[in-house]
């Protein structure tokens, strides 16, 4: 048998819905099923080769397209086995222990420091690499879309839908197995290159690039167990019983072993049912009852004769790959957790138009940040309990309204200072400062509100003005507006 490995790079987000449902919460798979690669090859080869070669490639099982799983630094990955459990309260895989179910003593289960039995919870998501690096999550995106009304060319009412997708830039690795090496050239010629797969592949989603890997990635080693074999489902499995009916209880022989008895009390198996979509016939195929990848069968009374095998049905589409006694089920391996980085940002070449847009958006963002800083400063000052602020709140709301009106019309703090306080920078030593020119320094405003007690209120407000010059006239306008509100609140309390 010849096995060739390929790398898949996502050139755009890819949508691979986990169900055929068109309503509700749509989720995408975290791997690329082998049927997608079979479909790519079939779409380009099927009508251009003779019937015998088409049968050998697509129907005989002599060519098997594996599932593509997430890759990091050129290493392939494996689903976390269903045998892995953690304490319900201590489930951080970076520091907390992992319990392997078939090794747990049922008579003496794990206990905590207080001697109480731990509540163990199965780990049901994630992948790990061949160097035992755990990948907690594969990054995905969500896009909200709307169908188009062909008559009005606007969004169609009641036709909103969403897509969850695998992020652009992610890399996956899969392999193709050839029982007949003469079929390799035909498949490889059309498999390498740029393709589209998944949902909405004729729109903005689904573009990928497939490259052949010259050196096979490192694989998981196995270990020996006396009179026992652990069968790990590297991919989904599908079986029929002796009566031709789907079954979730395969025999040891169907799992690729010569004999043995499956211990279901120690095994950990998860299942799912789905109907694959046939693009050529534009309808679904027969329903499939599948054992989910990551499941582990414990088979007693037999020894392994090989490290891996392909078993069951639909092997051409990635089903049926199993490992025997992989070392991660041995129970003495240390795992180091690492989060997979988000997909790399693509290089964007900007034109003059896009540069102007970026400048405009940057300016708007700066304005928004400036407004927030001013609002925060005003709120902090107005609601402080400083004696000077408390005294200023007793100034009438009409006075603060006048200040706000003046500040709103001005954009220069020097001009505003002159209009409020009658002060300006002297250009000549002989020039006298006229302090009876400003709004707060003459007339009724000065006599009743700002000039009393040796102009204590005016000096307090002038200090606030000076300390917040950097915020500009907008700060004074907002401060005056807030102080007017506080003044009205104070008057209302006194009247009641």
β-strand percent reads: 15-25%
Classify the helix fraction into a percent range: 25-40%
Alpha-carbon distance between the termini?
A: 94 Å
Mean pLDDT: 86
CATH structural fold name of the domain at 1-82 and 124-218: Alpha-Beta Plaits
In the CATH hierarchy, what is the class of the domain at 1-82 and 124-218?
A: Alpha Beta
CATH architecture term of the domain at 1-82 and 124-218: 2-Layer Sandwich
Shape descriptor reads elongated
Which regions are unreliable across 5 or more consecutive residues at pLDDT < 50? 341-351
| Number of DSSP E strands | 26
Number of helices: 10
Gyration radius from CA atoms, angstroms: 36 Å
Question: What structural class results from the helix and strand content?
Answer: alpha+beta
Biggest sheet layout:
6 strands, antiparallel
Describe the structure.
Among the domains are: 1-82 and 124-218, Alpha-Beta Plaits (2-Layer Sandwich); 373-495, no CATH class. The longest helix is centred in the last third of the chain and has 31 residues, at 352-382. It contains ten helices and 26 strands. Helix 1 (34-45) crosses helix 3 (184-191), helix 4 runs parallel beside helix 10 (473-495) and helix 8 packs across helix 9 (452-467). The relative contact order is 0.12. It has 496 residues and is α+β, with helices and mostly antiparallel strands. The chain has helices at 34-45, 51-58, 184-191, 352-382, 387-392, 397-409, 413-421, 443-450, 452-467, 473-495, and strands at 2-10, 63-65, 69-70, 77-79, 84-87, 99-100, 120-122, 127-129, 133-135, 140-149, 154-166, 171-178, 193-196, 207-213, 228-233, 237-240, 246-247, 261-262, 271-274, 277-278, 283-284, 288-291, 296-300, 308-310, 321-324, 336-338.
């Amino acid at each position: 048998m010849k096995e060739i490995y390929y790398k898949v790079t996502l050139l755009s987000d890819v949508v691979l819905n986990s169900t055929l449902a068109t309503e509700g919460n749509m989720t995408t798979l975290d791997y690329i099923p082998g049927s997608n690669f079979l479909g790519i090859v079939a779409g380009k080869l099927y009508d251009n080769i003779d019937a015998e070669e088409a049968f050998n490639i697509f129907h005989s099982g002599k060519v098997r397209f594996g599932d593509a799983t997430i890759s990091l630094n050129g290493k392939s990955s494996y689903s976390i086995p269903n045998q892995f459990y953690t304490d319900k309260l201590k489930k951080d895989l970076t520091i907390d222990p992992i319990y392997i179910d078939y090794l747990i003593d049922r008579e003496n289960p794990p206990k905590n420091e207080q001697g109480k039995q731990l509540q163990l919870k199965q780990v049901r998501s994630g992948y790990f690499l061949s160097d035992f690096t755990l990948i907690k999550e594969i990054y995905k995106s969500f896009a909200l879309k709307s169908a188009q009304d062909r008559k009005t060319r606007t969004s169609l009412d009641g036709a909103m839908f969403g897509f969850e997708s695998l992020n652009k830039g992610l890399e996956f690795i899969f392999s193709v197995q050839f029982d007949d090496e003469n079929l390799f050239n035909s498949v490889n010629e059309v498999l390498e290159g740029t393709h589209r797969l998944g949902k909405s592949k004729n729109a903005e989603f689904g573009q990928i690039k497939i490259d052949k890997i010259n050196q096979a990635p490192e694989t998981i080693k196995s270990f020996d167990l006396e009179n026992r074999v652990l069968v790990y489902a590297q991919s989904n499995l599908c079986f029929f019983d002796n009566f031709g009916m789907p079954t979730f209880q395969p025999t040891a022989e169907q799992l690729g072993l010569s004999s043995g008895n499956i211990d279901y009390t120690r095994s950990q198996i998860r299942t799912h049912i789905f109907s694959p979509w046939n693009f050529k016939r534009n309808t679904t195929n027969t329903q499939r009852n599948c054992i989910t990848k990551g499941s582990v069968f414990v088979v007693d009374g037999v020894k392994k004769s090989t490290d891996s095998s392909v078993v069951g049905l639909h092997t051409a589409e990635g089903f049926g790959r199993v490992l025997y006694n992989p070392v991660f089920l041995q129970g003495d391996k240390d795992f180091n957790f690492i989060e997979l980085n988000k997909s790399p940002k693509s290089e964007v070449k900007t034109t003059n138009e896009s540069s102007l847009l970026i400048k405009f958006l940057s300016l708007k963002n700066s304005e928004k940040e400036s407004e927030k800083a001013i609002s925060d400063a005003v709120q902090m000052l107005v609601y402080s309990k400083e004696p000077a602020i408390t005294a200023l709140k007793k100034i009438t709301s009409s006075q603060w309204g006048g200040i706000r009106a003046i500040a709103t019309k001005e954009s220069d703090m020097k001009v505003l200072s002159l209009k409020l306080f009658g002060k300006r920078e002297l250009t000549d030593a002989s020039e006298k400062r006229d302090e009876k020119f400003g709004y707060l320094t003459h007339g009724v405003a000065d006599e009743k509100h700002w000039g009393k007690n040796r102009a204590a209120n005016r000096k307090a407000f002038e200090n606030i003005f000076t300390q917040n010059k950097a915020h500009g006239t907008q700060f004074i306008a907002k401060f005056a507006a807030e102080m007017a509100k506080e003044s009205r609140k104070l008057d209302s309390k006194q009247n009641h």
